[in-house]
Recover the amino acids of this structure.
């Protein structure tokens, strides 16, 4: 089984979330406030320490103010076509 954590797709997901958050003018603390969670959770997600599922991606995207497909498109582009699960 190939691990997805730290894969090019996972790194792209983290970078896309960070880029979208910053483009929205949000700090990690501001993002955490919108999510009603601790800033450390946002930091762990963005650093790749904590994986997120598709429902969490939707919640994160909404908190940032973007549609999930904008973030997902970057992940699709970065994921190797032969990546296995």
């Amino acid at each position: 089984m190939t691990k997805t954590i730290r894969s090019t797709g996972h790194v792209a997901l983290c970078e896309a979330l960070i880029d979208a958050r910053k483009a929205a003018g949000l700090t990690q603390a501001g993002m955490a406030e919108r999510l009603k969670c601790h800033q450390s959770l946002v930091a762990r997600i963005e650093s790749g320490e904590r994986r997120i599922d598709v429902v969490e991606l939707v919640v994160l995207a909404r908190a940032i103010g973007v549609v999930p497909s904008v973030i997902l498109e970057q992940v699709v582009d970065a994921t190797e076509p032969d990546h296995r699960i």
